[in-house]
Design goal:
It is built from nine helices and twelve strands. It has helices at about 15-30, 65-90, 100-110, 130-140, 165-175, 175-180, 205-215, 230-240, 265-270; strands at about 5-10, 30-40, 45-50, 55-60, 90-100, 115-120, 145-150, 160-165, 185-190, 220-225, 245-250, 275-280. α3 crosses α4 (about 130-140).
Length: about 280
């Protein structure tokens, strides 16, 4: 019986070793791998003012050649990845596409829709724009959680759940429930301490802890003073002190902006590479 389906996002330049490592863990966990191979389009045609003051399309003379070349490289790499996965004996599918901007985000989300969790290969960080477009597409246009760093199939001993009573944090906890249930310990960490105006005895995270306890999790609720530090620094420091091997947190974005961007804490936790993090929105 298959257990989980992981949408595994890779780039054309992702090396065989990374793909084989993920395939091996998927096979060992009896999981299915949706390997999504992505390339970004070459710089798109642009608009310019012509000598007659009319707007004209500006197209580099070699744009179509570059496009055809990238598309051929993408298809060739997809064939190679399919052969790698077949040789590894893992249950898997390979999908390949090119895109840019919002189109790319929706293509990414479409592949995540039929998976339990999404995982970005570390090699994608070499193209920061593509890395963030994929992350944004998964988090804000699909129903699944996104994981970066580490091994998406690993058994977790101690999980640090960053909590602030927000909807994204709650959704992250719900999306991660199977992972939380399998962990030996869950620490709910809160950094915004209660104010004197809060309801007496109302400790943030206690309701969530009760819910997880009813499911069978071993849960501790901890309040941490920020001490003037940023939330992202607090999360990383406390998680390392506790020996947590996974951080779970809500993801935040500024979708009202013309160009989709992440909130500061989400951006910082995406950028760091030391701790495995699972985001939900």
């Amino acid at each position: 019986m298959q257990h989980r389906t992981v949408a595994y996002y890779v780039g054309v330049g992702t090396d065989d070793a990374s793909i084989l490592e993920c395939a091996e863990t998927a096979r060992n966990q009896n999981s299915h791998l949706n390997c999504v191979l992505i390339a970004d389009l070459p710089n798109l045609p642009y608009l310019k003012y012509g000598s007659n003051r009319f707007v004209e399309a500006g197209l580099p003379s070699n744009w179509l050649d570059v496009l055809y070349g990238k598309n051929a490289a993408l298809k060739s790499r997809a064939t190679e990845v399919e052969a790698l996965l077949v040789g590894q004996g893992v249950s898997a599918n390979v999908y390949a596409f090119m895109g840019s901007g919002t189109e790319l985000q929706h293509l990414v989300a479409g592949e995540a829709n039929s998976s339990d969790i999404a995982f970005l290969d570390a090699e994608l960080r070499k193209n920061p724009d593509l890395f963030h477009k994929i992350a944004y597409g998964v988090l804000f246009h699909s129903p699944v959680a996104l994981m970066v760093n580490g091994d998406p199939f690993a058994q977790r001993d101690c999980i640090f759940l960053a909590w602030n009573d927000s909807l994204p944090a709650s959704r992250a906890a719900h999306l991660a429930l199977p992972i939380l249930l399998a962990a030996n310990e869950v620490v709910i960490g809160c950094f915004d301490l209660p104010t004197p105006d809060d309801v007496e005895g109302q400790v943030p995270g206690t309701d969530l802890a009760g819910w997880l306890s009813h499911h069978g999790c071993t849960v501790t609720v901890s309040q941490f003073p920020r001490g003037g530090n940023s939330i992202e620094n607090c999360i990383q420091e406390r998680a390392r002190e506790l020996g947590a091997d996974l951080v779970i947190m809500g993801a935040y974005g500024h979708s009202h902006l013309r160009q989709s961007v992440f909130g500061g804490t989400t951006q910082a936790m995406l950028e760091q590479t030391r701790l495995p993090v699972l985001f939900g929105h």
